[in-house]
Amino acid sequence: MLAKSLVIFIGVGVMAGFAFGFYLHDMKNTNQLVFVDGSSISIVTEKSDFKKGEEIKITIVNSGTNTLIFSDTSYGLKISGLFGIMMYSPHVSPAVTTLKPSEEIVFVWDQMKNDNVPVLEGLYKISSDGIDSMGNKVEKSITINIWK
User: Fold this and answer.
1) Do the strands 68-70 and 78-81 form a parallel or antiparallel pair, or are they unpaired?
2) Are 54 and 68 in contact (CB under 8 A)?
3) Which residues lie below 8 Å from residue 21, measured CB to CB, with a gap of 6+?
4) Taking the model in full, what pTM does it have?
5) What is the dihedral of CA 21, 27, 31, 37, to 10 degrees?
6) Pick from 131, 118, 144, 19: which is nearest to 72 by CA?
7) Separation of CA 129 from chain center
8) Cα 26 to the chain's mean position, in Å?
9) First CA to last CA across the chain, in angstroms?
10) pLDDT digits 0-9 by tens, 58-106
């Protein structure tokens, strides 16, 4: 017969495992595109886990009802490590660009840094920022995983 304390500890462990699993499931929400009233920008990728060397299609969407303004043709796209070290930003032309509501722009990243060195495996932050028609900054970021 099992000791009473052992049964309690096993029961608490099983309950904690279920609770932690549901928490991680909620954190791994893949719904990246939500349309709202007002100013909003969304970044969408096909998935959140990529193999090393795989091309990553990044879609920047104006998911609000206001036009967004960007200072160049990169649409504010930046890819950095989780500690904020810049890895990649597209080559840009210094021309003011806009995204109208529900409009989108697609970039493809080949997992190369700006100095043409491949990135390592790990977590990366993809971000974009712009300004709405009232002068407010609008920004969004997501994280992706790159594995072997």
Assistant:
1) unpaired
2) no
3) none
4) 0.77
5) 140
6) 131
7) 12
8) 15
9) 47
10) 999 999 999 999 999 999 999 999 888 999 999 888 889 999 999 999 9
